[in-house]
Design brief:
The chain folds into two domains: 102 residues, Elongation Factor Tu (Ef-tu), domain 3 (Beta Barrel), CATH 2.40.30; 166 residues, Rossmann fold. By secondary structure, the chain is an alpha/beta fold. Strands 10-9-8-7-11-12-15 form a seven-stranded mixed sheet, with helices on both faces. Strands 4-3-6-1-2-5 form a six-stranded antiparallel sheet. A two-stranded antiparallel sheet has the order 13-14. It is built from eight helices and 15 strands.
C-alpha cells in the first residue's frame, strides 16, 4: 500500500490532541429505531466541539474500541454533540447501550463537510438512504436556520421499512415549519403504510427542482449513492454539484494508516464528502 507523502508520522503524532481522545459524558441515549440510537454528549471540560455539517469523529467506548461516526447534531449548537449509531458490531453495541453518565472518548472532528452554503440562491436536494439521513441532518438544520437564502428544498429519503425511518418528528417539523418537501419511500411497506414503495432513485426521477441551479447532497449505502448520483446527473445536475459522503473503515482519522484509502484518496482527510466529478470513475468499479 502506498501512502501519500507528507509530514512524518512522528510529526503528526506530536500535534496536540491528534490521537488523544477528549472525555465526553452521555447526557441522553434516545432510541430512534429497533437497532439505532442517538447519543447526546457533553464535554467533561465544558468546551464545545465545533464542527461543520458532514464531518465525523472517532468515537470510543473505553475497553471496547473506536469507530468513525458522523455527527448528526446541529452545528449551531456544538455544546451538545449528537451521534446517531446503528448497533451492528462489538464497538457500536457498547456505544448504543451507553447509559446517561457513561464516559466516552472523542477525537476530531475530521474530514471535509457538505459546504451547504454553496447552495444559497438555488435549489437543494438531499438524498438519504437508511442511516445516511444522520450525516445529512446537520446540513438540513443549517438550511432550516437560513431558509430564506434557498429556493426549493427537497428531502428524498429511502428506508428498508416504515419502522426504520429515522427522525420522524424532525421530518414533520422540516416539512411543516421550514417548507421542505419531504418524500419517503421504503423497500417493503407494512400494513397501514400509504407512502411510496421502491427505490429512492425513483423519487429523483420525479423532479421538482431546477437541475441548473441545484446542489445535491447524497448519503447512504454506496450502491444507493452510485445510482442516485447517476439519476441526478441524468436529470441535469452538474457532477461537481452532486456531493456524496463516502464511508470506509477509518482507523486513525488523520491519513496515517491507509485503511480508508480509495485509490489515490484518503477519505478521512480528502473526504468523507466529495464531488461526483471525482468519485464517478472510482465508483464505477466494484470493491475498489
Amino acid at each position: 500500500m502506498t501512502l501519500r507523502p507528507g509530514p512524518s508520522d512522528a510529526g503528526l503524532l506530536e500535534r496536540e490532541g491528534v490521537m488523544v481522545p477528549r472525555a465526553f459524558v452521555v447526557a441522553e441515549n434516545r432510541r430512534d429505531t429497533r437497532d439505532t440510537v442517538t447519543l447526546e454528549l457533553v464535554a467533561v471540560d465544558g468546551d464545545p466541539l465545533e464542527f461543520a455539517a458532514g464531518q465525523f469523529t472517532m468515537l470510543s467506548g473505553f475497553g471496547a474500541g473506536e469507530v468513525p461516526i458522523s455527527i448528526s447534531g446541529d452545528p449551531a449548537h456544538p455544546e451538545v454533540l449528537q451521534h446517531t449509531i446503528r448497533n451492528v458490531g462489538g464497538v457500536t453495541r457498547t456505544l448504543a447501550h451507553a447509559a446517561p453518565g457513561t464516559a466516552l472518548g472523542i477525537r476530531g472532528p475530521y474530514g471535509h463537510g457538505w459546504k451547504v452554503a454553496d447552495g444559497r440562491g438555488g435549489d437543494v436536494v438531499f438524498v438519504a438512504g437508511g442511516i445516511g439521513l444522520a450525516p445529512l441532518r446537520p446540513a438540513i438544520l443549517e438550511v432550516c436556520a437560513d431558509r430564506a437564502s434557498y429556493g426549493q428544498v427537497r428531502l428524498l429519503y429511502g428506508s428498508r421499512t416504515p419502522e426504520d425511518i429515522l427522525f420522524t418528528s424532525d421530518l414533520h417539523v422540516w416539512a411543516r415549519e421550514h417548507d421542505i418537501v419531504v418524500e419517503e419511500i421504503v423497500d417493503a411497506g407494512t400494513l397501514g403504510w400509504r407512502g411510496h414503495v421502491g427505490l429512492v432513485t425513483q423519487l429523483v426521477a420525479r423532479g421538482g427542482f431546477d437541475p441548473a441551479r441545484t446542489l445535491a447532497l447524497v448519503c447512504g449505502p454506496e450502491v444507493m449513492m452510485r445510482y442516485a448520483a447517476q439519476a441526478l446527473h441524468d436529470r441535469g445536475v452538474s457532477p461537481p454539484r452532486i456531493r456524496l459522503s463516502m464511508e470506509r473503515n477509518m482507523k486513525c482519522g488523520v491519513g496515517l494508516c491507509g485503511h480508508c484509502q480509495l485509490r489515490e484518496l484518503f477519505l478521512c482527510i480528502d473526504g468523507p464528502v466529495l464531488g461526483y466529478d471525482r468519485l464517478a470513475p472510482l465508483m464505477a468499479r466494484a470493491e475498489l
